Predict the structure.
Amino acid sequence: MSEDSDTSPLGATGVGSMPGTDAREAVKTVIGSFESGQGVPHLPELPARGPGADMVGRTAGLLVELYARVEPSGWRLGDRPGRDTRRARSLLGEDLDALEEHAQGHTGPLKVQAVGPWTLAAQLELRNGEAVLSDPGAVRDLAVSLTEGLRAHTAAVRARVPGARVVVQLDEPVLTAVLLGRVPSASGYRTHAAPDRQLVESTLRDVVEGQRRDVPAAAATGTWADGAVVVHSCAPGVPFALLRRAGAAGISFDTALLTERDDDALGETVENGVTLLTGVVPGTDGPLSDPAGSVSGVRTLWRRLGLAPGLLARSVAVTPACGLAGASPQYARRALAHCVQAARSLADNPE
């Protein structure tokens, strides 16, 4: 991918997860899918490897001075790093080794993913078995730990791939449930109260701003800039306005879940320079339409919003609807290639 500019198409990228257990094969597939400036490669996640490779365990392994272990109910905070923390870090180390091997010479954006602070707070347990979400002080500590862990992680990626501009994707599939007070308690008989929306926004903003702390002030800005943060959710009701105000450079979502009620927020998002990462390619095996057909809904949305066609390829990237962990390896390769072709179709024919 060439250097960002106001007129460059944004291209395509993946969401994060891939099928299988072979880190080298997954990285090779992703790098190959987006080579020659056709899109933005990402560091794959392989949850089929088991605990520590799942999205919560992988992110728990990044935390600074907080440690988690696997319990029958899920990941729970503990007093010291144990076997599960070591396993999560070891698996991530394998992924970074594979990235270093196959991404040598890569220059340009490179995306890494981690669970965002609110989904992590909803899915990570305190020692008493309740979600971290139940304790505002614990949520604050978790967000600080996550911010510092991500800074260390992106520094490690830059050290292994010196030409990379590292973009962070925060996965927040539970964010809408958090905002609506729909996250169940440990007993299942009640739900956790919704936190104040301003607190949700400021917590996200702190994590987002923390990722640019180590990036030179004169560095380029934009969706694929070094230290930029995009937020992904494949759940209905993505809070576009909140994420925009929190400083997200891009918002990734499943286009099939949009309704016309989202139109105003989407229009404001684009007008404020935030990229839409549109999930248009199914995440599990099935027939694929022609690339132009896959993004026909994006063109329809653009017309409905009354936005200039010339802005489309500069404001929209193409992705799978969600992660590809549930797909076959053959389909995953086809899906990423299809995203590249669909993005090219948008650039060539925005109308």
